[in-house]
Amino acid sequence: MTRRPLRLTIFNHKGGVGKTTLTVNIAAALGEQGKRVLLVDSDPQCNLTSYLFSDDVVDDLLDRSEGPRGRTIWSAVKPVAEELGDITHLRPMATVMTKVHLIPGDIRMSEFEDSLGDSWTSCFKRKLGGFRATTAISALVQSITSRSDYDFVFYDAGPNISSLNRVLLLDSDFFIVPVACDLFSTRALSTLGQTLKRWIIDWRTIQALAPDGAYLLTGSPRFMGYIPLRFKTYGQAMASVPARFLRRAERRIYSDVISVLRKVDPTLAQASVSDTRLGLVKDFASTVQLAHEQGVPISQVQEGNEQHKIEAWDAFRSIAKAITARSKKWAKHA
Fold it and tell me: Which of 105, 236, 242, 274 qualifies as a cystine partner to 49, CB 3.0-4.6 A?
């Protein structure tokens, strides 16, 4: 019997903070450290799939997703969404990264997302169909990871407060917040903390109402930490503006995320903000664009800025080690 891998979501509902780029590069670093990683492209925009595969491969996946040879996330949840049966098991796709596999995304997940609001309401009415739809993605991941031994599952979520992201966060053991060095990114933290609080409280009510034998989400996403992005440096020193930003971000992280979640349940976040920063990802400028064009992690870009590639490898390796260390600490107390 395989063990349950740790499920994580990198989430900030402000767009443009680099969630997909973070996910790819962290997964690559974990894979290089010998960890098996399953990426789930849950976003209807399919950014993660488009990052890792060429346009012709993505087009073929989308063209076939409705049929018996479908390999996207929609192919798997379609029977549940259309109330025709159970999820369809998928075989994840190998990627260019060592030990990293992908459940491809699908634009049709926008249809599923539209229906999840009604499914959530149905859960409050104790209707089994509501539970089946709400937990379909989780059940798919469970089906895959029960047949193959993974260490981590990463959900790639869209940049919004939505019914789809609600089920992803509530199925996660941990969530990580990327924070770009700008005022709007930190302001979004207030909405994030309050939204998570409401989702967790509502799901606990739903759990109490659940019919016997219903498959359930864990419903307790813990705050693992945050990652500041795209700051600039001068020589070896951080610029004064990003340094001030980091101090402000930590204050907001504590007041808008940690303290809010701890009022619901002290186990959802540690009491101190002092060691919640998982790492730092500087501005790698055009090297990031090259990584997207080539479909590889930043450190594996052909040509490009060599210093950027070295710094990116060091940064993401450090973040991966921090995630692994905290997951081990979690496992001891689980």
Answer: 105
